[in-house]
Specification:
Helices cover about 20% and strands about 30% of the residues. It has three domains: about 270 residues, 3-Layer(aba) Sandwich (Rossmann fold); about 60 residues, no CATH class; about 210 residues, Galactose-binding domain-like (Jelly Rolls, Sandwich), CATH 2.60.120.260. It has about 550 residues and is of the alpha+beta class. The chain contains eleven helices and 23 strands.
């Protein structure tokens, strides 16, 4: 979860190794690289839990050559900083204190922009909450904004493997990203979830237990939800990410939030977004996206945004460039727009059909635009002892990206609904959703949905997916258990995608109840999250008839 880095700059410079005090007296290790010329200098700031001595994004080295100082700070409790590491929450106050300190340095000219990806991306948002006058821009890359809806939870389901592997690794040794010798695959199967820190051979980890305990959206998450703080953010943002990144939703949501709700006119006018065919740190494989999606071009644009703001905060840092650039998978081309959702999109429902046997890709499940009438329902058994394995998607700590789902579609606990062969290209751009009418024999369970581009050669390539925990089907703040056997409606948010389904391809939807170990297994008991050691199978019923028109909802872009 760290940015591309090099240990030391190549340009001649002066280096200061400092311990900077925060408001509570804790000192944070800070390394400042300054040009070998007279100051004061504008500053690019990066705050990271991955060691200041080893983190200097390569493009910023060129800024150093052009008279910009680079400052890298270890987050609280990591590397050489004092204190105890606790993710997310301390970064709000520490970010403001760091900006106060920087603005008071005689070698700083009072203009600061921030850089960083993933966790260092989130530290930018939290620092921006203060509306600090010295902060003239931020460039958060693959960064979370609402931790209660990624990275810790999605649709009410716990993001198990990421929270476990990343969290425990960072905690080990009081911070610093050290790779401890743990069998993560084996530990992912451990129960109860609350005690996995102890099962890993570590002491109880406060933030791990808090993540488990705060499984609904409450004040714990509100405090670090960027979506609640846009009016306080006065610095323009260039937000960037990838379709197969865990924070793709955050990338688009934050762009919209800055455009519509940021606390200054420059922040609303100058903020930009770029979202491409990338995972959390690489170009997505297996889709043949071509050479026009290299990350080097992205990082060069991010540097230009930073440097231009440092030179003139009142001017558009990317003049003449679109507000939004997005990569169209399938047709493998960049497109642009001024807003998200893009203009010209119309939601189109594709209804689920079968004769009661949609189990696996060999079943009779189909998709089309005709609403169902009288049809038998489909059933499968979700057994948390034998969950559907994760295979790509927006994953970290597991292989992410696009992979052939054919093996998963051989399972009887995966329902597969396939549309007809397309006679012409179809552009899908925006939020993909599934409206599912389902019943379960359990008081709580999960339902998953996955959008597939089915190639003529039989490859079933995943595009986007979603999950919903039944108790949170109506609200993330007020959980409600199921009445076993009762048919209820679920809205499964599969996040966003931009894909051209080529002529000759087919649109496919998978429906199931697990995606493990990316998400924890719902034990189907209805007990509080993290306390179960027991796992119970559940019989799942998926309805698609006149009274229960289950459907896939696609944002179809009108032809240009």
């Amino acid at each position: 979860m760290s940015a591309e880095a090099r240990p030391i700059p190549r340009a001649p410079c002066r280096m200061l190794d400092l311990m900077v005090p925060m408001r509570d007296g804790v000192r944070l290790h800070t390394v400042a690289y300054m040009p070998a010329t007279d100051g004061p200098f504008p500053v690019i700031l990066l705050r990271t839990p991955y060691s200041a001595r080893n983190t200097l994004p390569a493009p910023n080295q060129h800024a150093l050559e052009r008279g910009v100082a680079l400052v890298v700070q270890d987050c609280r409790g990591t590397a050489q900083s004092e204190g105890v590491f606790y993710p997310w929450h301390p970064e709000v106050a520490d970010g403001k204190d760091c900006l106060d300190w920087l603005a008071a340095q005689e070698w700083c000219n009072g203009r600061v922009v921030m850089d960083g990806g993933s966790y260092p991306g989130s530290t930018q948002w939290y620092a921006a909450f203060a509306g600090h006058p010295a902060l003239v821009g931020i460039t958060p890359h693959v960064a979370p904004t609402d931790c209660a809806n990624s990275p810790q939870y999605i649709g009410g389901a716990f993001c198990l493997r990421l929270s476990l592997q990343w969290g425990l690794n960072l905690h080990y040794g009081n911070g610093g990203y050290e790779k401890i010798d743990i069998d993560w695959e084996k530990l992912s199967w451990g129960l109860p979830l609350r005690d996995l820190d102890r099962q890993a051979g570590l002491r109880e980890i406060p933030f791990w237990r808090d993540w488990i305990g705060h499984n609904r959206y409450d004040a714990y998450w509100e405090a670090i939800d960027v979506n609640r703080h846009y009016p306080a953010i006065r610095a323009p943002a260039l937000v960037t990410g990838g379709w197969y990144d865990l924070y793709s939703r955050a990338t688009l949501e934050s762009f919209v939030g800055m455009q519509t709700r940021a606390g200054s006119e420059p922040a609303r006018r100058f903020s930009r977004c770029i979202i491409g065919p990338w995972t959390h740190g690489a170009v997505v494989q297996n889709l043949g996206v071509g050479t026009n999606a290299e990350l080097a071009d992205l990082h060069a644009t991010r540097l230009r945004f930073r440097e231009n703001l440092l030179q003139d905060p009142g001017a558009d840092p990317l003049p003449g460039e679109p507000r939004l650039r997005y990569f169209m998978l399938g047709s493998n081309a960049w497109r642009s727009a001024d807003t998200w959702p893009v203009p010209g999109v119309e939601n189109r429902a594709l209804y689920l059909h079968s004769r009661g046997c949609a189990n696996s890709r060999w079943g009779d499940g189909s998709l089309d635009r005709e609403a169902p009438r009288a049809e038998p329902h489909d059933e499968y058994i979700y057994d948390p002892r034998h969950p559907v394995p994760s295979n790509g998607g927006c994953s970290i700590c597991l292989p992410g990206g696009a992979f052939d789902q054919s093996e998963i579609e051989d399972r009887s606990d995966v329902l597969v609904f396939t549309g007809p062969e397309l006679s012409a290209d179809l552009d899908v751009v925006g939020n993909v959703r599934v409206r599912l009418f389902a019943a379960s024999s359990a008081p709580d369970t999960d339902f998953t949905a996955k959008l597939i581009d089915l190639y003529p050669d039989g490859r079933a390539m995943n595009l986007c997916d979603g999950i919903v925990r039944a108790r949170f089907r109506q609200s993330r703040t007020a959980p409600a258990l199921l009445t076993p056997g009762e048919v209820v409606a679920y809205d499964i948010d599969c996040w966003d995608i931009a894909n051209t389904f080529r002529a000759g391809h087919r649109i496919r939807l998978e429906v199931s109840s697990s995606n493990f170990p990316r998400f924890d297994r719902n034990p189907n008991t209805g007990h509080p999250l993290g306390e179960d050691s027991d796992l119970c199978p559940a019989r799942q019923t998926i309805c698609h008839d006149a009274d229960h028109p289950s459907c896939l909802i696609l944002p179809v872009l009108s032809p240009r």
